[in-house]
């Protein structure tokens, strides 16, 4: 069985973070493992609190995983703080981790900061060089590039700025657009669109976590990058179309929609 590790934050309400990642992995038939960087107290209406684990404890979790069940792919989500990012990078290097999908989670849909401001530089300098693909949404791509994004040309400019310090695949997600849900892949000066029909569903809690875990699951199963993204896109669209409606705010997706 193929194995995938998520390094991210826990969402006690089950819609985003580690919980969304593990559900996505189970739905793909891969064996999911988790190293928890932070515990959050949150639900569909917002984040009430964050409890960071220590660097030592996060490293201990990674040692336990890598020395026993080696992951075929790694997804990285909410990593909160500088020291944790440095710890993760050290362990990924030490164990030669491969197929690394990095979702640069910065702010929750509900508006809470999930990555401290002074950690963004560390993320770029220390963790980006290890990633095969990064999956910023438009606001994250703006922070990473310093370009204000309104048009498709702005996206290209932002990707080329990010490309100055990141050598891998850049998937810019269009979930925040109003007219469509197209995602754009940039790689070494080339661009490819992954077309998405906008689903009229307010319940989008955890879409980014789900997409990045679906891509990691596909990479673990041996798909190439573009096929992994295409399959991930189809999976997220299906999960949104299912129309699950839980909670009082922006609710979670049905990760198991294919089993219906
Ligand atoms: N309403 C929608 N209809 C169809 N696809 C969507 C919709 N909203 C998001 N997506 C898709 O979901 C994936 C995640 O994109 P999004 O831009 O929402 O990421 P994100 O903001 O990082 O997610 P998160 O809400 O977890 O922070 C992308 O493939 C995007 O196109
Ligand atoms: C632990 C954790 N990780 C990631 C997100 C981002 O997801 P969203 O933007 O849908 O709130 C989150 N809310 N919580």
UniProtKB/TrEMBL annotation:
Pathway annotation: Cofactor biosynthesis; thiamine diphosphate biosynthesis; 4-amino-2-methyl-5-diphosphomethylpyrimidine from 5-amino-1-(5-phospho-D-ribosyl)imidazole: step 3/3; Cofactor biosynthesis; thiamine diphosphate biosynthesis; 4-amino-2-methyl-5-diphosphomethylpyrimidine from 5-amino-1-(5-phospho-D-ribosyl)imidazole: step 2/3
Q: Which GO terms describe its cellular component?
A: cytosol
For this protein, the Enzyme Commission number is 2.7.1.49, 2.7.4.7
This protein's UniProt keywords: ATP-binding, Kinase, Nucleotide-binding, Thiamine biosynthesis, Transferase
Domain Pyridoxamine kinase/Phosphomethylpyrimidine kinase, chain residue ranges per copy: 11-254
Q: Which GO terms describe its molecular function?
A: ATP binding; hydroxymethylpyrimidine kinase activity; phosphomethylpyrimidine kinase activity
Keyword match Transferase: yes
Q: What chemistry does it catalyse, as a reaction equation?
A: 4-amino-5-hydroxymethyl-2-methylpyrimidine + ATP = 4-amino-2-methyl-5-(phosphooxymethyl)pyrimidine + ADP + H(+); 4-amino-2-methyl-5-(phosphooxymethyl)pyrimidine + ATP = 4-amino-2-methyl-5-(diphosphooxymethyl)pyrimidine + ADP
The protein, known as: Hydroxymethylpyrimidine/phosphomethylpyrimidine kinase
Tell me the organism. Anaerostipes caccae (strain DSM 14662 / CCUG 47493 / JCM 13470 / NCIMB 13811 / L1-92)
């Amino acid at each position: 069985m193929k194995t995938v590790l998520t390094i991210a934050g826990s969402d006690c309400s089950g819609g985003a973070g580690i919980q969304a990642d593990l559900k996505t992995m189970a739905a793909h038939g891969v064996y999911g493992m988790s190293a928890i960087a932070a515990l959050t107290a949150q639900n569909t209406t917002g984040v009430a609190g964050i409890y960071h684990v220590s660097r030592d404890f996060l490293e201990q979790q990674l040692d336990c995983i890598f020395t026993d069940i080696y992951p075929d792919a790694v997804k990285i989500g909410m990593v909160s703080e500088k020291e944790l990012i440095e710890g993760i990078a050290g362990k990924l290097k030490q164990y030669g981790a491969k197929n690394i999908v990095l979702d640069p989670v910065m702010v929750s849909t509900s508006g809470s900061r999930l990555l401290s401001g002074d950690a963004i530089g560390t993320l770029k300098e220390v963790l980006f060089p290890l990633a095969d693909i990064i999956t910023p949404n438009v606001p994250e791509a703006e922070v990473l590039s310093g370009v204000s994004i309104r048009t498709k040309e702005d996206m290209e400019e932002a990707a080329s700025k990010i490309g100055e310090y990141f050598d891998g695949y850049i998937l810019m997600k269009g979930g925040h657009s109003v007219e469509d849900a197209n995602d754009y892949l940039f790689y070494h000066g080339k661009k490819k669109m992954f077309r998405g029909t906008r689903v009229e569903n307010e319940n989008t809690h955890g879409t980014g976590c789900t997409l990045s875990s679906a891509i990691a699951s596909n990479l673990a199963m041996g798909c190439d990058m573009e096929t992994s993204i295409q399959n991930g896109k189809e999976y997220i669209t299906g999960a949104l179309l299912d129309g699950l409606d839980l909670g009082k705010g922006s609710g979670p997706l049905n990760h198991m929609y294919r089993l219906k």
